[in-house]
Specification:
2 copies of one chain form a homodimer.
Chain A lengths: L9 E5 L3 H12 L3 E6 L12 E4 L5 H10 L2 E4 L6 H8 L8 H8 L1 H10 L7 E4 L2 H11 L3 E5 L9 E4 L5 H7 L5 E5 L5 E9 L5 E3 L3 E6 L2 E7 L5 H17 L4 E10 L2 E8 L9 H4 L4 H9 L11 E9 L6 H4 L5 E5 L10 E11 L2
Helix pairs in contact in A: 1-10, 4-5
Chain lengths: 358, 358
C-alpha cells in the first residue's frame, strides 16, 4: 500500500463549481483541507474550502503559488488549459493523470482509445471539412450527430443530421472546429458506472445508475438501474478495463448505452460525475470521498449500497420548488450556493431515498 | 409559516469546533454561507466555513463587525460570556434564545426548570458551603455527585461522594464554586433524544439513541435504543414539553436515564449534540441540517430514520485506528481536522450502518 497523504495536508482543486464544493466537504471529513483555484470570484466551492485563489488559467505566478501550497492536485472539469497543467505538474502530482485528461478531452481520441480496448462504441468518423463529412456520413450512416472533438458541455457544440442536406448547416454550426460524426445508437436506456481506482491499483465500482437526460442535460439518476445481473457485471468489467488501461487514480464516470446487443460506451469523464450524486445518500463512502480516498492513497470504499435512491437535478428555475421539496419525507436537498439562477444552470440536486437497497 | 432566511444569507456561528464545522457544511447544503467566530486561530469549522473571525469574546469591535455581517446567530456551545451575547443580541437574533442558554448554563436553574415542568429529575439540592452540603446530603442521600452549577464539560467539575467523610475534599475540589448535589439514579441505560423546534413552533424528534459513556465522555450511541414503544413515545413527549416551554428554536439534545419507574431527565444541551451524530448516516435530514432549518425558518425534517447506526467517538489516540476503520464496510469516517491529538480530545467519529431501519 502506498503512503497516504498525511492528515491535515492540503489538496488543490482546479475549478470551484459544485463538484469541487462537494469534494472539499468530503476531503474535510477525512481530515484534509482544500485550496480551490478558479478564475471566477466567489465560486461555490469557496464557501466550504479552507482557501480559494481567484486567478486566470494563464497567471503563472498564481499557479505556482497555488502548487507550492498544496500536496496533490485534482480537478473538477476536463477543459483545463494545457499550459496551466504543464506548470502545475512540474511541481505537484496531478491525479487523475494527464493521460486520462488527454483521452477524455477529445472525442476522437476517446472513441479511438475505447474501441482499441475492444469495447463497443457508437460508429464514428473524423470530420474536418465538407469532404470528410461526406465520407463520414458514408461510414457512419444517418441519422447521426456532428460533435466538436474538444469537449462541449451539456449538449453544446452538437448538431443532429437526419439527411445529407443538413451537412452544410451542421458544418457552419460548429464553425469549422475539428469534429467527429457519431452514429445513432438504438438504446433501451442509458446507465452510468461511477468507478474508482486507488493509488495501489484497486478498482471499486458503485452500482450502475439509470440516467434520464432532457435537452442534453441530466435530469435524474435512479439506482438500482433496470439491468440484468449479467449486464450489471458487464458494466463493472467495462469500467474496470478503462481505469486499468489508463493506470487511473481517482473516480471516473462512465456513461453507457444499454442495447439488446450489449453495452456501448458513450463517454467517460475523468472526475466525479453528476450521475454519481446519489451515492451521497446511498453509500457509506460516496463518490466524492471515494475520489479523495483514491488521490490521497487511502483504501477505497467497496461501493456497497444500502439504499435505493433517485437523484433529481435542480436546473434553473427548478430551484423555486425547494420549499415544497423541503417538506418531502426522505428527500435530501443539496444546493450549490450559486448566486444567480440561469436557465439550464445546475443549481442543486435532490436525493430521494426510496427504500432500503433492493 | 414565517419567512425563511433568504438563499445565500450568512449565518453566524459562535464557536468553531466540530459542531460548528458540521453545521457549516449543512448550512452550505441549504444554500447559506457561514461565518464562524472563535477566539482560537484556525478552528476546525474554519476549514469549511465561508468566513472566520479570530477574536476574544470581549472584543466588542470584532463582535459588532461579526454581527453586522450575518443575518442570524447560533452557537455550538453554552459557555458564551453574557456580555458578548448582550452585544450580539442588540444587533441580530440569537437562536436558540438567551432563555435556553440561561437555563442550561446553570445546573440548578436547569433542574428547577425541568422539575417545574412536572418532569422527573434526579434528587438535587443547592450547595454553597459546608453547612448547605450537609443539608443537601440529608435531602439527596448518598452516594451522590457534587457538581459545579456552571457547566463543566465532559465530566470536569464533578466529584463523587460515597460517605459524609468525603464532604470536605469534595468542597475543596470544586474550589468554593456554587454547586449542586445530585443523587445517584439507578438506571438501566442512558438514552438521548435529539429534538428540534421550528420558527413556527413545529416539533420533530429523531429516534432516541442509546449512549455509552466512559470516564465521563460519550463513547458510542446506538439506534435503535433498547426501549419499549411506550418509553419511546414518552421520550419524545418529554423532549417536546421542554422545547415548547422554552419557546425554543433549533436542535436540543435531551439526555435521559431509563429506569423501571420511567424516564428521568439528566440534562439538556441547547445545541446539536454528540449523541445525534448518527443522524448523518441514518436520516435524510441530519441534526445539523435540522438545526439550520429551524433557525433559518425552513420546515423541519420529520426525523424519520432509514438505517440502524452505531456512532463511535474517536477520542485521543483512537484516531490512530482510522486506517483500519477505512477498510470496514459501511463505516463512514468523520474527522474534525484538529491539528493536535490530546488524551480525551474528540478527534472524530465513525458512523457504522448496521442495517436498514429496524
Amino acid at each position: 500500500m502506498p503512503e497516504a497523504l498525511p492528515y491535515g495536508a492540503v489538496i488543490g482543486i482546479l475549478g470551484g463549481g459544485q463538484l469541487a464544493r462537494m469534494l472539499s466537504v468530503a476531503a474535510a471529513r477525512l481530515g484534509y483541507r482544500c485550496h480551490v483555484y478558479d478564475p471566477a470570484p466567489n465560486p461555490p466551492a469557496a464557501h466550504v474550502a479552507a482557501r480559494a485563489t481567484t486567478a486566470p488559467w494563464d497567471d503563472a505566478e498564481a499557479l505556482e503559488r497555488f502548487a507550492a501550497e498544496v500536496s496533490v492536485i485534482t480537478y473538477e472539469f476536463e477543459n483545463i488549459p494545457v499550459a496551466a497543467l504543464d506548470l502545475l505538474e512540474a511541481q505537484r502530482p496531478i491525479r487523475p493523470s494527464r493521460r486520462a485528461l488527454a483521452v477524455s478531452q477529445d472525442r476522437l481520441t476517446e472513441k479511438t482509445f475505447l474501441s482499441g480496448l475492444g469495447l463497443e462504441v457508437a460508429p464514428f468518423a473524423p470530420v474536418e471539412d465538407a469532404d470528410s463529412l461526406e465520407a463520414a456520413i458514408e461510414t457512419v450512416g444517418l441519422p447521426a450527430i456532428l460533435k466538436t472533438r474538444r469537449l462541449g458541455y451539456d449538449g453544446k457544440g452538437q448538431v443532429r443530421l437526419t439527411g445529407a442536406e443538413d451537412a452544410p448547416a451542421a458544418l457552419q454550426a460548429i464553425a469549422g472546429a475539428p469534429a467527429i460524426l457519431e452514429g445513432f445508437v438504438n438504446f433501451e436506456r442509458e446507465v452510468s458506472v461511477i468507478a474508482a481506482r486507488g493509488l495501489d491499483g484497486t478498482v471499486a465500482c458503485f452500482d450502475p445508475g439509470e440516467n434520464v437526460h432532457r435537452e442534453g442535460i441530466l435530469r435524474t439518476t435512479t439506482v438500482p438501474a433496470r439491468l440484468s445481473a449479467s449486464q450489471r457485471a458487464d458494466a463493472a468489467l467495462v469500467a474496470g478495463r478503462i481505469l486499468n488501461a489508463l493506470d487511473y487514480v481517482g473516480v471516473m464516470g462512465v456513461e453507457m448505452f444499454v442495447t439488446p446487443g450489449g453495452l456501448i460506451v458513450n463517454e467517460i469523464a475523468p472526475r466525479v460525475h453528476n450521475s454519481g450524486h446519489w451515492t451521497q445518500q446511498g453509500c457509506a463512502v460516496d463518490q466524492f470521498e471515494q475520489h479523495i480516498r483514491a488521490i490521497a492513497g487511502w483504501p477505497l470504499g467497496d461501493g456497497s449500497r444500502y439504499a435505493d435512491v433517485t437523484m433529481e437535478n435542480l436546473i434553473g428555475e427548478d430551484v423555486a420548488r425547494v420549499p415544497q421539496i423541503a417538506r418531502e419525507r426522505n428527500a435530501t436537498i443539496h444546493l450549490y450556493g450559486k448566486a444567480e439562477v440561469r436557465p439550464g444552470r445546475k443549481m442543486g440536486h435532490v436525493n430521494r431515498i426510496t427504500g432500503p437497497a433492493g
